[in-house]
Write a structure and sequence with these properties.
The structure is a homodimer of 345-residue chains.
Chain A (H helix, E strand, L loop, with lengths): L3 H17 L5 H6 L7 H13 L3 E3 L6 E3 L1 H10 L8 H8 L9 H16 L2 E5 L8 E10 L2 E8 L4 E7 L6 H14 L8 H12 L4 H15 L7 E4 L13 H13 L14 E5 L11 E10 L3 E10 L4 H24 L4
Antiparallel strand pairs in A: 1-2, 3-7, 3-10, 4-5, 5-6, 8-9, 9-10
Helix pairs in contact in A: 1-3, 6-11, 8-9
Chain A binds a DNA duplex (30 and 30 nucleotides) through helix 2 and helix 3.
DNA sequence: TATTAGCACTCTATATGAGCGAGTGCTAAC
DNA sequence: GTTAGCACTCGCTCATATAGAGTGCTAATA
């Protein structure tokens, strides 16, 4: 559909705008050596590109700016991966040099470095807690009628909840229950725990029947772990450095968005592998309509999938970010697997 | 030093500016019925007040604005407590109606309501974890050479850290150690734990001597709990609604401050009781020079002190905020004590 | 003597218009 | 098919004019 020259002009226009944040005009383009055409020729092609929806004008006599469709086309067809310099790769690898034992630590540091290398805001989604498996369960009584339930998962993560205990239960009842769980429910996914808990305990603790339901109810309620992803940011304020957000209204709505993403359902599609790019309104959120989010998934072992993302203006440096995320997600998969499955596994 | 009329004018000026955010002029003031003087008279007094440093002009022919010294005087001498309406008190009490068992929950909800009632940003400092006491200690092995240490405190809080175990230690070594701690170190403050740990275990686990130091070292490092206060916000973005922050630079530095307060040492003086007001530069931080922070302490039992605070523009409604914080801190002291010491204690 | 009216002055905010520059679209020439 | 040329449009900047709010000072007033 597009002529070669139009392709060239679209690409150079997007590249230039990404770099300068200024609408790009025909004269300016014709000065570049990659574009050996006169301004008039360029104008004609730009007019065509505008008609087809790839470019836009901010006002009648301004230069052109890529439209969302333009970015989409650029991203889908013109993304030549950029080489990441050795020093940058070294910087990424440095995350894993000091032996760290906690995934959270690794994730935090990754977020920081990613943001430093891109000058955009980075987001790391913590692993979905519900996919972890029970390794050890225990209950510690607090007062006469309340206790805290503690679950250690295979990944070393610890979840804890306070719940209330009906009066008729004694310490030894509780102990029996804990033993039961440790015998039978190790290896169960956290999100399955409440259901299984009921099945297992009902069969055995029958004698306390009347009150058992109360206990189970209260415990299940406490143990029901919402799908509340933990979100780590790196360079949260970086976005505000971009000229497109020099406006308090926009700044606020973005900040607000960031503080509340984890409460918004389905903003990240964790189930998709590889690198995804969502541009402007593709993010399905008003606050994000001037932003693009590039997400890369990494996996740990076989099933657990985590995500890292960079959020920047639609005018972000896609080439570079995609390449960086690629390196980073590979390294993360490798290193987190090591941590979780031990140096020998 | 100040004549009665000057006092009146200062007060009315501050009140008016708090309300309107506009510099207040003499003519405007003379229209109010509390001020039965002509503009000329008011001008004279205002000029005096300016000379003494209580008022400022934004430019030569503008109205006056309270200076930091002016606010300070106002706050120290003119703060008549405001009556809190019954419906508002009811709203505050609603926090404690549904029986909540976790202090964190209570604190979160308090933050939200406080911000809603004031239209400013609220900050709740979580209790200083280091002052909690050990209730139960346990260690769960993760891999061959790492394990997670879990401490439940008397308040129901759970701390956990991953640490590494030298190879020569067996499961039963670890078990002995855990038992030892649960026998001897229950009731110890969290911040004293590392020191005491060493004293207790050295005496008993002597046989494993060479490696014990490694284990203790790694465990102590993990258990050393920094003074890192947990900070909960309510209405984090409220501040950006204030006209004085309609500027991305300021907005950013405030957001940044909020995200990093807990890493800045000594910004809250937890040891002081009662209500404190810090105005502008009294906060000792550039980002806060247009803000005031009003802090109220509450206590739980006898020694633990927590803080709630409201952060708003220096032009904030001191009367109202002070009164609200007063009610809130009282209620919090009462209710949190109940939770922590149980319904019968 | 303390207060007030009056007046000249200052500064901001807002609107208006001119001039410049960058850019466009169209047409005619190459 | 490409380019040169030209008229036109729009935004930006700068200067100027004007209105309005407020001040400081002086002289009149109670």
């Amino acid at each position: 559909m597009l002529t070669n020259r139009q392709l060239l002009i679209l690409q150079v226009t997007v590249d230039d705008f990404i770099e300068t944040a200024q609408p790009v005009g025909s004269r300016q383009l014709s000065k570049k050596e990659e574009v050996p055409f006169s301004p008039a020729t360029i104008r004609n092609d730009m007019a065509d590109l505008e008609e087809m929806g790839y470019l836009e004008k901010t006002h009648t006599s301004s230069g052109r700016v890529p439209s969302q469709k333009g970015y989409r086309y650029y991203v889908d067809n013109m993304l030549t991966p950029q080489r990441i310099s050795k020093s940058e790769i070294k910087q990424i690898r440095s995350i894993f040099e000091e032996r760290m034992v906690e995934t959270e630590q690794v994730i935090r540091k990754s977020a920081a470095i990613l943001s430093e290398l891109t000058n955009y805001t980075s987001i790391m989604l913590g692993l979905d807690v519900r996919k972890h498996r029970v390794k050890r369960f225990s209950i510690v009584p607090l007062t006469d009628d309340s206790a805290v339930a503690i679950i250690v998962t295979d990944s070393g993560h610890v979840e804890n909840r306070v719940f209330s205990i009906p009066e008729s239960f004694t310490a030894s009842d509780i102990e029996r229950m804990v033993n039961l769980i440790n015998e039978r429910l190790v290896g169960v996914h956290l999100h399955e725990l409440p259901a299984k808990l009921e099945a297992v305990t009902l069969a055995v603790l029958r004698q306390n029947n009347g009150r058992l339901n109360d206990l189970l109810g209260s415990l299940n309620k406490a143990l029901t772990i919402e799908h509340e992803d933990k979100v780590y940011y790196g360079g949260k304020m970086q976005l505000l450095n971009q000229p497109e957000f020099n406006d308090v209204e926009k700044a606020r709505s973005i900040m607000y968005w960031m503080d509340h993403v984890n409460q918004m359902p389905g903003l990240f599609h964790l189930d998709q592998k590889g690198i995804q790019i969502r541009i402007g309104t593709e993010n399905n959120h008003l606050a994000m309509e001037d932003c693009s989010i590039i997400t890369a998934s990494y996996d740990i072992g076989e099933e657990q999938i985590g995500s890292i993302a960079i959020i920047g203006p639609t005018r972000m440096d896609y080439k570079r970010v995609v390449s960086l995320l690629d390196v980073m997600s590979g390294d993360l998969s490798r290193e987190l697997s090591k941590i979780l499955h031990g140096p020998h596994g």
